[in-house]
Amino acid sequence: MNALNARILLSKIQLQNRRNDLKFRSQFSSLRNSLLCSVKNGGTLTLTLYHGSRKTVFSELRTSENKKSSQAPRTIKIEAPDPAGAPPPIKKGRSWKLKGFPKKVLSILSNLPLAIAEMFALAALMALGTFVEQGEAPSFYFQKYPEDNPVLGFFTWRWILTLGFDHMFSSPVFLGTLILLGASLMACTYTTQIPLVKVARRWSFLHSADSIRKQEYSDTLPNASVQDLGVILMGAGYEVFLKGPSLYAFRGLAGRVAPIGVHLALLLIMAGGTISAAGSFRGSVTVPQGLNFVVGDVLGPSGFLSTPSESFNTEVHVNRFSMDYYESGEVSQFYSDLSLIDLNGEEVMRETISVNHPLRYGGFTIYQTDWSLSALQVMKDDEGPFNLALAPLQINGDKKLYGTFLPISDTDSTNLKGISMLARDMQSIVLYDQEGKFAGVRRPNSKLPIEIDGVKIVVLEAIGSTGLELKTDPGVPIVYAGFGVLMLTTCISFLSHSQIWALQDGTTVVIGGKTNRAKGEFPEDMNYLLDQVPELVDSKQPRSISG
């Protein structure tokens, strides 16, 4: 008690000596807590609670001496000032509502059925986003989803434009559901996962053999020492703690922490997806070889978080566009040689891109996505060269076909005649005479002339156009980091968190344990470990470690 009084500062209450007085002091498990109680017959019952440096005095009036008074008992609460001069704590009646309200909200958000419903709602919205065409003009939805012929009897353009389903992944409905799911994950982490980890980290000794035998697995070792068991468990990767005859050991604590990492990874993925949907820029452009465009003229914002950067002033010049072909003649790959030019007119980067090999600079990315033909360069009767614009022609299927026309009669005539040229790609050009009859095929750059209706023609070059898609996506690094954490923590979460208790009872060791996973393998592992515990040769009771 002297050592205890040296660690705790107590303010004593002095009472006058009266008959039948009773005083006692109770010390709690924590050295910082104590209770002083004074009882007097015909006086008052005084309770003083000390918690650290804070003192609270409770006084309850009792009946008079020898219980002759019929005064009804009543309770008076007195807030005593803190010995260190700190103000008294806030009364419970005023703080209960403030403390209770967040707990109720956390309880609702951490509800598992609610979280499942939120995930199903997100899945339904994403499915709807793949069904409804995204990013089209309002006139498209007026025509595709008219009010006089609604889809499923009710779904019209009003639903799409009012709820923002034309930009589903940045719509308030989608983002609101995503935020609600994120709040549920954080509430579950705070109310369930973190407390589980705190409990798992505590050293919880069991001092009763009956309590140990009630565990999922239990056994006894006659003529054994709990210290020898601790050494065996340490060799198997357990953290071992001894206190007198009691032992506590655990391993696989990371398996308890991993679910928190899984929740964090999901939050990162959702945050990155939200930033990508509401804070990115996108655009596409088709540029003939030899021409330029400005990045900022192509990119358009996708949401309310989109913020342009200085790199949007970069100018892109298409130096050359080329193609590779399969042996069958089909296009296999196409390339764009691009130069990036800053505001000072200096080339800051030059790179050749192709499908699946984009260019990245200043926060934006340029992808090679498409191609077309823009012009044919020809010589006519050794005159020229002339650039003839190629126009796409409508044909069945996904095949491309481009055509142009070279007039050979008076251009002011109402009956204009000339030579037609068709091209599927940059490999060969098919020529037709004035009557539309096949005249021949020439390859660009072959310099081989062909004479049609008395006109000599040389096809010099087929000039292509590159189809580029530009995008800024600041959420991509966050999404990648989230998936990396998710894969790692998912694997770690499969680790079993195993706990073992043991008690030295004479020469017998009582062992019990449990695990949260691999419950079928745990008894086999325990039997294997217990078989390694040496048997005591001396029949005397083994020496136990003092607490």
TrEMBL record:
Keyword check for Membrane: yes
Domain ResB-like positions: 114-375, 425-526
InterPro entries registered for this protein in UniProt: Cyt_c_bgen_Ccs1/CcsB/ResB (IPR023494), ResB-like_domain (IPR007816)
Topological relation to the membrane, as annotated: Multi-pass membrane protein
Keyword Transmembrane: yes
GO terms under biological process: cytochrome complex assembly
Gene Ontology terms: cellular component: membrane
Location(s) in or outside the cell: Membrane
Region annotated Disordered, chain positions: 61-89
Predominant location: membrane
Designated name of the protein: Copper chaperone
Taxonomic source organism: Salvia divinorum (Maria pastora)
Encoding gene (name): CCS1
